[in-house]
């Protein structure tokens, strides 16, 4: 039995089986292709064993392929969750000034900045505006607002 014949004879059956596992047409298609790729690679294992029906053997490969994909997706999601939790642990000057510094001291330091930098600082920290919105207020670019804000933070640090 060649690989084209195998796919023609069992392709729809395996696709439907995988579709019941995934409930996703696109995923079932991709997993079906991977199932037949794995089956062709290990066809000698089936011939040497020969105890199970061919369709059962293909279903076991399909299920393993699906489980591997599920595990891979779970690991990706765990990594994304882990990284997003780590991001919140990093030092964040904005958060520090709002939470840990005496508010009056913050405003005293901010008064030493140029009017433009002070306004950008207030819009970002107190107004909770995005850099794009700040750029729009000043009729400048988002990048300009981001760089100016960064420079204002550096000046605040120097004044400590």
Automatic annotation (TrEMBL):
UniProtKB keywords: DNA-binding, Sigma factor, Transcription, Transcription regulation
UniProt keyword annotation of DNA-binding present: yes
InterPro entries, sorted: RNA_pol_sigma-70-like, RNA_pol_sigma-70_dom, RNA_pol_sigma70_r2, RNA_pol_sigma70_r4_t2, RNA_pol_sigma_r2, RNA_pol_sigma_r3/r4-like, WH-like_DNA-bd_sf
Domain annotation RNA polymerase sigma-70 region: ranges: 6-73
Family that this chain belongs to: Belongs to the sigma-70 factor family. ECF subfamily.
PANTHER family with a match to the protein in the record: ECF RNA POLYMERASE SIGMA FACTOR SIGL, RNA POLYMERASE ECF-TYPE SIGMA FACTO
This protein's name: ECF subfamily RNA polymerase sigma-24 factor
Source species of the chain: Sporosarcina newyorkensis 2681
Lineage: Bacteria, Bacillati, Bacillota, Bacilli, Bacillales
């Amino acid at each position: 039995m060649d690989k084209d014949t195998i796919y023609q004879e069992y392709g729809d059956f395996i696709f439907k089986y995988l579709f019941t596992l995934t409930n996703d047409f696109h995923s079932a298609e991709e997993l079906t292709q991977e199932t037949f790729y794995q089956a062709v690679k290990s066809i000698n294992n089936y011939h040497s064993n020969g105890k199970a029906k061919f369709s059962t053997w293909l279903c076991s490969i399909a299920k393993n392929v699906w489980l591997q994909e599920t595990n891979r997706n779970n690991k990706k999601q765990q990594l994304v969750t882990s990284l997003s939790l780590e991001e919140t642990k990093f030092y964040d000057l904005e958060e520090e000034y709002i939470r840990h510094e005496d508010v009056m001291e913050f405003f005293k330091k901010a008064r030493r900045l140029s009017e433009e930098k002070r306004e950008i600082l207030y819009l970002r920290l107190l107004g909770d505006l995005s850099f794009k919105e700040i750029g729009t207020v000043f009729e400048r670019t988002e990048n300009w607002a981001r760089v100016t804000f960064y420079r204002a933070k550096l000046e605040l640090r120097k004044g400590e």
